[in-house]
Write a structure and sequence with these properties.
Layout: H1 16-19, E1 38-41, H2 48-52, H3 56-67, E2 70-71, H4 72-79, H5 83-96, E3 99-102, H6 113-125
Antiparallel strand pairs: 1-2, 1-3
Length: about 130
């Protein structure tokens, strides 16, 4: 028998938990990657020998990061992997020193509602 038992519509044969070794959180430090956090390849990454020890998904993310700085969400879309898997894999790459992650800037603190009401009342008085 030479017939294939799967086709392209079946999706990937490797399940997400197998790519991450069953882990659901990135690294022992439990770093949280926001979807808009930017990932860039470190300027002084480990040697080629360490990179050869990485899995194919890790190497795919590294090659995407080498092409251009991308957010976690963009990496997940380009690699065609679930965001949770990408977060775990990026945690591995971050701890190994292959990538750096710039955290998104926190939103500015909103002004007090009382001040906004006074401004609105002042504008109405004009």
């Amino acid at each position: 028998m030479t017939s294939q038992w799967y086709d392209a519509d079946a999706g990937p044969l490797v399940r997400p938990y197998a790519m991450t070794g069953g882990r659901t959180k990135p690294g022992p430090s439990n770093v949280r990657f926001d979807l808009i956090a930017l990932v860039v390849v470190d300027e002084d990454p480990p040697g080629r020998a360490e990179e050869d020890l990485l899995g194919p998904e890790h190497r795919a993310l590294l090659s995407l990061c080498r092409a251009e700085t991308q957010s976690v969400a963009e990496l997940a879309a380009d690699a065609d992997l679930p965001v949770g898997v990408v977060r775990v894999l990026l945690g591995d790459l971050l701890e190994s020193g292959f990538v750096r992650v710039s955290r998104p800037v926190p939103p500015a603190q909103l002004p007090d509602e009382r001040i906004l009401r006074e401004v609105i009342d002042g504008l109405r008085a004009l």
